[in-house]
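does this look right to u?? S-adenosylmethionine version
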Amino acid sequence: MRFDILTLFPNLFESYLSDSILKRALDQELIDVKFHNIRDYSSDKHHKVDDTPYGGGAGMVMACQPLFDCIKDVKKQNSGPVIFLTPQGERFTQNKANNLAANNKEIILLCGRYEGIDQRVRDQLIDQEISIGDYVLTGGELPAMILIDSIARQIPGVLGNEDSQGEDSFSEKFAGKKEYPHYTKPAEYEGHKVPDVLLSGNHAEIEKWREERLK
Ligand code: SAM
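got this back:
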């Protein structure tokens, strides 16, 4: 799976991608993440990428020219959907992560900043708009990283244990519900005990106990 990230702040992604599961996925070439700094596409002599909003109001709006040029250029290298991260988008869910992973080999993610982007970019060049929840962040970089993480872990081989992805919250195995509580050794910690049933060795009873705790 190839992700192309369009952002003003590519460095923000560095630490998350340079450790743990996603690092391994990159090293094993199970995923590829390319960055495109929108500022590099600005034709302004000061590399300006934003301007004041028509109609007045607070803040700045990311302007058409750098975004049109950047998106058109990246589309030559990546034939997947162009997804704009925005609070006005459709709410991101496990189902959406599954569908994006199943139906695409390439995805382009556009991260907004400031008040957002000129509507004409959205009208002309964006295929999907996704929100990660009903709150406002300073930029689309964290939402893009969330999409990469949740989509990447659907790709066979990305998780160490192939089975573990099928046994998470929202999976078919749990009928779309959220997972039961986990415990590990020791059986008693500072007087807090692990439920007896989990130590019983009775698999049918353990399954029943877990099923009753799915939410
Ligand atoms: N003026 C916008 C509004 O009221 O909806 C918020 C702009 S926000 C400060 C800057 C950028 O952060 C957005 O263009 C978007 O790319 C990203 N962003 C912020 N919150 C987000 C969310 N909940 N989901 C996805 N992207 C978000």
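The first strand starts at residue 2 and ends at 7. idk if thats expected tbh
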